[in-house]
Amino acid sequence: MELENIVEILNEDPENVIPELLEDVRKQYGEIPYIMNFMKDLPGIFIPKTLYDNAIMREFKNLDPSTVELISIGVASALRCEHCLKMHMRIAKRKGLSKESIFSAVMIGASLSNAAVLAESTRALVSEFEEEEAEEPEEKSCSGPSCEVCNISGVQFE
Known about the structure:
Layout: H1 3-11, H2 14-29, H3 34-39, H4 43-58, H5 65-79, H6 82-94, H7 99-130
């Protein structure tokens, strides 16, 4: 959306703008997301959020709409947001994306979510045991097969 259009929208009466924005979203997605329906009676939040979301979800010229939906599916999977996940899956289906492509996005999101849990947890584990041992740098760099963070199977627990 061009800056001139944004300024024009912001200068309009919210009672006129909100239905226009909702209809634009409906055209793009084939439905109105739950959170937008919930916020539509709060123009001071709804209008800027919708403009922001539009800038993020539709204005990146180097990402096609199908890729944006697959990213949305992966993120919704990682965040475990069932409502967002189902909505973005419906949108992806409407865009003609295959079940296999959608599943790949789910698996990527799941893998990243799993990696985030492991990274946070293993750092906490190493940090907890470092306190009992001699002072070492806060952040260890990977030293290959002997690295306690990367090679958890080589660590001896007592």
